[in-house]
Amino acid sequence: MTLITGLAVHDVRFPTAAAGDGSDAINRGDYSATYVVLETAGGVRGFGLTFTNGRGNELTCAAVEALGHHVVGHDVGELCTAEGARTLTADVQLRWLGPEKGVIHMAAGALLNAVWDLRARLAGVPMWRLLAELPTADLVAAVDFRHISDAITPEEAAALLDRGLEGYAERLERATREGFPAYTTSVGWLGYDDEKVRSLTRQAVKDGWTAVKMKVGGPIDDDVRRAGIIRSEIGPGSLLMMDANQVWDVGEAIANMERLVAFDPYWIEEPTHADDVLGHAAIQRALGERCRVATGEVGANRVIFKQLLQAGAIGIMQVDACRVAGVGEVLAELLLAARFGVTVCPHAGGVGLCEYVQHLSFFDYLRVGRSMEGRMIEYVDHLHEHFTDPVRVAGGRYLLPERPGYSVEMRPESIAHYAYPAGPAWSA
Amino acid sequence: MTLITGLAVHDVRFPTAAAGDGSDAINRGDYSATYVVLETAGGVRGFGLTFTNGRGNELTCAAVEALGHHVVGHDVGELCTAEGARTLTADVQLRWLGPEKGVIHMAAGALLNAVWDLRARLAGVPMWRLLAELPTADLVAAVDFRHISDAITPEEAAALLDRGLEGYAERLERATREGFPAYTTSVGWLGYDDEKVRSLTRQAVKDGWTAVKMKVGGPIDDDVRRAGIIRSEIGPGSLLMMDANQVWDVGEAIANMERLVAFDPYWIEEPTHADDVLGHAAIQRALGERCRVATGEVGANRVIFKQLLQAGAIGIMQVDACRVAGVGEVLAELLLAARFGVTVCPHAGGVGLCEYVQHLSFFDYLRVGRSMEGRMIEYVDHLHEHFTDPVRVAGGRYLLPERPGYSVEMRPESIAHYAYPAGPAWSA
């Protein structure tokens, strides 16, 4: 038993909006973190964050404070169970502000990820290893099956996790040797002009990338032209993903993709509003085998993911590490994906998301999905220098993390410099 | 053109949790308001609120501050259009915190309702009349069709609203004479024991109520016993509604309702998680003609309502006045309901919700749904004394509001007394 004795939350913002990095059809953000530090009597600390897009980061910080009493004074192990997590997600007063979505749920994600980070640090292992080597019963106990039991039961989850023990050593050996496939999103932000897109794509190919993502959702003729540039630079053998960031209506998505499928996209990401399960299903039906539908970065919770799977709405599930209620709810989503045979390619970028989700993909490979086929982790080459244990990416692949924890501990000097609004980066 | 020149937000909380009023399967709240006051140079003020459940009200207040710059310095008329509302709901940084859900969206609701209140006060008419007598083109311009155009187009909305002009005078005469049917939720909170339920129900019948709602979602045997008490008190001719407040899983909801249909419920409200469109559809299919499924009080936005209708998941749509982005988004929901032929019975109770939604039901009757058949407004006899223009309910019916605006202006002495945390109600 390890009691959490203290909690601090930091509002950390990076002024990225001005450069157009991260610009897409619907966002233009200052990448920010609601950064949580948990203390224990023994001195080991836990670190978690939720990613936000700039303004409003004070709201997720305040939500962390509002939920803090469910964490401080409580036991790490207890908070890593479904019942423990539910003290945050089903608080009899705060639940009204969601339920299980938006500001309050993102704050729960930062807190519960910090708790799980603490657990991994206490065990002295990286998060992927903690999870991959936990007994099946402990993993099942971490999943809140409430409201998803019509799609997956604890018994079915246990069977999936037990199956994941077979061949574990071989997969671990392969993951250690080969790492995990990645793709880059840095070539095709909407804020970049054609020549910048072309030169970045060319450089990406030189750097070994065989999978790249572009933003779409501007005027469709521009999207088509940019898709042509990128496809011509990467050649027919590499993967091209497209991301509309929810800007299209359902009919518009279908019509625009009728033109864009000519460039053989591996997936179309967020073709319409993130809550629109039936809309995604309609788009996937219209595209058929020609293109997979992908979504998840703003998927509110396991109930939305459950329905996307039940409706056959997606071919790619893009779990996010900190929009949902931390590791426990991500486990639910990975198990649901496996149950429905859908490929998981986590959402990353922002700040700290690459650091987080590498652990999820390695765990998924080792214990749940058991395959790297068609699976990739998003990679954006921004802001890694602010972390004490940044991702290591080489030749288009993530290398297996080695240090204990969930890899989102930030450097003290970065926290101080980018603290909002008092840090030098903002007060100057 | 009327510019908004100032904005104030108040954190107002009523200590209701201790009494068990408002207790249900999932909430035990201190009914609270994120209360917004807008100023204009001419001195006319606008009032809006979003309802919360106690702790966390500081988050919606802070979200109002975060969105305030889209309102202060802007024109009332412009903010009453879809494009105006979208400056709040699609802010390039704040949208990430939703999108269009939870804390940030509820704050948009408080602000935009205050803008619409201001518009009605400037016109010198109650909200229902402002809306019911607006030209069709102005109403259509207030609706954001983005992400719902696959279910309703501006042309279809215009046709519905034009049709609502026929027979308008007769309906207005009837509404003025008869008011609008109501039901009471005050008899069957989960926190009440059997004898309190029985005596409250008996009193409600004496007071003229012919429709009452009970909470379910406790142990099923208790629910069955309480349903028996209430049905025996109201007799076979009155309506009994049941409300599970999302506590059941899908299979559990179906199994429990197999027992509860014996008491002939008019609807089962929130049988499972509010985001679970497919789950509601499965429950409605299982119940068939025996009981309608109802939901809406935490329906996040028009995209969720669209899908509930597309999936045939509900027979009753319970719009909430301030969880979504104010009058404009409620208009979208009312038009969607009419398009799919589904009955609207707004969610009320809490604090200020009865004051708000009476305007919506009268407008719906006068211009959109054009019927009172099977339609009712929820009524809870709490906290009306804090408003300057409280609802008037007699013989189980709401009377038509007469004073200008949206009826949620609070008395200054109530704001001062219940201000959190400094007011005497909390600092004592």
From TrEMBL, chains A, B:
It catalyses: L-fuconate = 2-dehydro-3-deoxy-L-fuconate + H2O. SMART domains: MR_MLE (SM00922). The keyword Cell cycle does not apply. It is an enzyme of class 4 (lyase). Its cofactor is Mg(2+). It holds the Pfam family MR_MLE_N. Keywords: Lyase, Magnesium, Metal-binding. Its EC number is 4.2.1.68. The keyword Chloroplast does not apply. Residues 194-290 form the Mandelate racemase/muconate lactonizing enzyme C-terminal domain. This is L-fuconate dehydratase.
